[in-house]
Batch of 2 targets.
Target 1
Amino acid sequence: MSKTLVEKIWDAHVVKSEEGFPDILYIDTHLIHEVTSPQAFDGLRKRGLPVFRPKQTVATADHNVPTLNQLLPIKEELSRYQVDMLTKNCAEFGIELYGLGHPFQGIVHVIGPELGITLPGKTMVCGDSHTSTHGAFGAIAFGIGTSQVEQVFATQCLLQSKPKTMKIEVNGELGKGVGAKDIILYIIAKISAAGGTGYFIEYAGSAIEALSMEARMTICNMSIEMGARGGLIAPDQTTFDYIKGREFAPTGEEWDKALAYWKTLYSDADAKFDSVLTFDAADIAPMITYGTNPGMGMGIQEHIPATGAQPEKEKLSYQKALDYMGFDDDSSLIGKPVDYVFIGSCTNSRIEDLREVADFVKDKRKADNVTVWIVPGSKQVEQQAKNEGLDKIFEAAGFQLREPGCSACLGMNEDKIPAGKYCVSTSNRNFEGRQGQNARTLLASPLTAAAAAVTGRITDVREFLEKA
Amino acid sequence: MKKFTKLTSAVVPLNIENIDTDQIIPARFLKATTREGFGENLFRDWRYENDNQPKADFVMNNPTYSGQVLVAGKNFGCGSSREHAAWAIQDAGFDAVISSFFADIFKGNALNNGLLPIQVSEEFLSQIFQAVDQNPKSALEVDLENQTVTIIETGATESFEINPYKKSCLINGYDDIDFILNQKQLIKEFEQAR
């Protein structure tokens, strides 16, 4: 019987399937961090249980960590307590921790792939909705709640109903200045912040196949922003080349065996998806969001849709979003002044993102009205950026290269955008208060963010590229 | 886990769509390492000014509205996987949330904590909002056994879907770990067979 990629991986991990019950799904790798794990460890203690498979569990500290002076004690008491608690819990339950000061520390969804922990065909979970990132390698990866973290600790399994499948094809060639972030913001704007709910999405088509692994991760990362549990891309030579030689990637005979299996991981030609959508890459412009959910995005030259054009029931919520952002409907964002630019998060903090920004800002300087934070996704990305001299380029441009963590994506540490200020951000969520109380977030690609940093205004990056 | 069978209660209406978990419980309150106490920060930035004064126009600060059922617009609970969102709603005294559409992870988290997410049609959701608009004390009856929700005043009723396994967990107060721990031998056999 022909199967989709999701079905192939799912079926290979079902421990038990029984009518009227969710499947018992085996989890290969469990990633954890300091925020969503403490109550799960407590649950184990209360039940008197060990972590069933500690060697299949990997921990890092990312959400709550400072991005300056990481080796000093964390100033904020509650953050410090939470990070310390992770250290204690990992020691008690025998889990490998890449904590502050460790050369592998970083955002959980950046370190998994770069260490070769994320592999095709795996099932992976984490108490974090952006776990979908790992799907870029052809893995089933999804975010879970803390009760489920406890469940995986206790049994290395999850009770899960098989998801519906959706295929999103993007074909053709991307225009100048348009990248993976624009593709995914475009798709979300088209199908809405709820359009993928209940589905696992497989991204396919020539425009997806042409993308690097970093770019594929950006796409899969934001699957959750349209409600999908996960997103994935069939592994190919680009995937295999990326994995080979990484810290925990298979080697020798193991590699050959793994590779042979990975090459079977694709949706069969006649496999049935519950839904199929097709987009043309040529229709996609650099994107920017104007509202308070990631579905409220548009091509940067477009006007914010009119409130009057919204369905009756949605007008109130729509207008509330524009009021929060301080924008008028039916207006353009081009030329609007911005206060902050944040380049980072599990969406866009990989070396390729930093290289793209450095390449753009070389011999340019940030506008005086803008504060620019560049937060690398991991210690390894930070080190590589320095090895390549990107830090010098950022410094010359007036950008600040900080230390790795989730940072201003969600402002759990001190990296908060002040009330009322506008931030062009390469992160994944523009929810009210996401980057700080009453902060206003405009999601965009690293290139569009870099252009805003240089001009101090919302700018169509293509203006620069055409001049060059 | 807390049991759920039947409930009759007035409701707290929140007619806003796409309420994300950052609104339900902002990230800065996720630093606690226990499950308790999140209720006071439920909808923190909609509920309170920066100086902690209650915002008079927010429904939870309006004494006219009270009850164990939160009713909200579609795509409730989107965004972050933080289970703290379900904990906060429950800690603030709610036992059920009604919407015309729930985000997946939130729905799972709610069910895993004995907080019942009830998905109703757009039409029925509008009827609930209308009934509460006309009479803020208008009550609902939620019957999990029969999977129905009824607007008592008008008698309008609608049935809702729930996974039969999750339904029995809620009625009996069992959680997934209780269930899955019994399957450990099977899990070990699965590992050996790979």
Target 2
Amino acid sequence: MSPWAGRTMPGCFSMTRRFGRWLVGLPPTLFLLLFFVAPSLIMIVASFRLAGEYGGLAPLVEHGRWQLTLETYRFFFSDFIYVEIFIRSFSVALATTLICVLLAYPLAWLIARSPKKHQDLMVLLAVLPFASNFLIRVYAWMIILGPQAAVARALNSLLAMFGFEPVTLLFSPFAVLVGMVYVHLPFMILPLYTNLARHDPALLDAAQDLGANAWQRFWEVTWPLSLPGIYAGSVLVFIPVLGMFAIPDILGGTGDILIGNVIKEQFLGTRDWPFGATLSLMLTLAVLACAGLAAWLARRGVGRHA
Amino acid sequence: MALLELRKLTRRFGDFSAVDNVSLSIESGEFVTLLGPSGCGKTTILRMIAGFDLPDVGQILLDGSNIADIPPEKRPLHTVFQSYALFPHMTVADNVAFPLRMAHFDKAAIAAKVHEALESVYLSDRARAYPHELSGGRKQRVALARSLVNRPRLLLLDEPLAALDAKLREEMQHELIDLQREIGITFIFVTHAQDEALALSHRVAVMNRGRIEQYDEPSKIYGFPRNRFVADFIGNTNLLEVAVTEATPTHLRLAAAGLGDIVSPPREGTRAGQKGWFSVRPEQVRIGGHLDGELENHYSGKVRSFIYVGDVTTYTVELADGTAIEALLSNSAPGRARFFEVGDDVAVGWPHDAGVFLHD
């Protein structure tokens, strides 16, 4: 029974309780209003404004006239390049998420199946990379994937043996994907581990007892019960990857820019704030759509697994 | 040939023998209970029969053939787990269909069998519910239906009623008895509750420290316990330390310290001079203001305390030497909650054919 089970109680007790709930809800509401809703509104308005001569925004009202335009949106849809970058960003985010699921699942499963006393240490090791700076970790990949590094040389001598041309690992979509997966993997491991550790081992015994072989026990019991963990991890990986600009900047080639790079460029390079705002807004809408889809999928799962 | 036979089964965990040289044979259609305190090895035996654990020594024979090499999923038997272990992401119907799907039955056959199984546990109307929407008793019934739907040779039940409240537990006991009789599948039931064991089973194996102390019908277990552990574990009893002074084919004469002579039924293999225990059940002990001379064994004392539980009252009578004897009195006389008060002078006694002498 939830602690709010008494919410239908009549009289002044329910009044105090309602006031208490309101009080508790106030700080996060204020936080969201101040740091999410307000900036979003500013962005929405900015996307309809004109760019300033030297960057920034032109005044909203000039000579007694509103300076608003749909120009940025027309521009966004007029040039297929932006839609293409959007599609590429979504593909990279999707690929990163899928690879993270494939890599994190066995690892999380292994941690969850380990003796209780080792689990905390293993989780700590999984998130240990966070202890060092993000940029340093990404730069480290520049060295690892660089043309003089052992990885590239070994791979290229292997390719040469079979008569293939040598390849460059760094500054390629491959390097971007490696960086994305590397940085975001812990965000997939943690929710998956939390989910898998909660599974009742008696369910697997029961499945086996009722005639399920190892594969069937996984596919019929473990996998469906772990879906909420996969949804949670996917949200935590997919959304940050969509907006990521540092990794393509460092590890990617010129053709590997993602929507995050374009937005950054609008604000810091081209200084076209209205168009930057438009791109950001499109990205936010797309992310919200994805999050909504994930939440819907997860709720469908949770309703059954409660 | 017995359906299931355990031959000299031993299972050690480190230095500790969870199961110690256990042999047991179970006939087809029987309802057998493994009864014992927690840690006595009953669950370990169940897990070895199911295949989740392997014996260090000994054999498990099903229909006369050793099943040691058969993995759990291939054994023609199912377990009802204490926690029910229903799949939370499947409906009641899908849970029950699970073993049939694993056995690759076709869809129509599965639907028919699931329907029939749910009908037999009165849950046809809850087929589409999820386990978390069901009460404990209903979850239990789903677990039963799921385990019985593909007609295993043997059903293992691991304390399945432990999580239910008293009233529901009694209801489920009746349902289990009826179900087992109807379908005729052999049940092996594990419990630490002696009333459950006596109520449900054709035969009970009383276990202690990895060994079977006695394997018999409930009435034999209760009426003729083989040793002190069984007498003490099953029901309430008065245990007196005694020495045998006379052993004849018709009776035994026992000397109890401070109490004097006790005449008890004969027991094979008993010789004068042996030491042991005398057990007499509270309901065999009569209590009265004064008892007439018909009872061979009678003693006087004072009521020390009593426990009134509705249908009966149990009096604890302290004899002159300090020995406490429990006597049970039925409250069937209308309007009479109890007959004696604390401190009343009373006599207790039992006939020569009551009670049993125990060697150890």
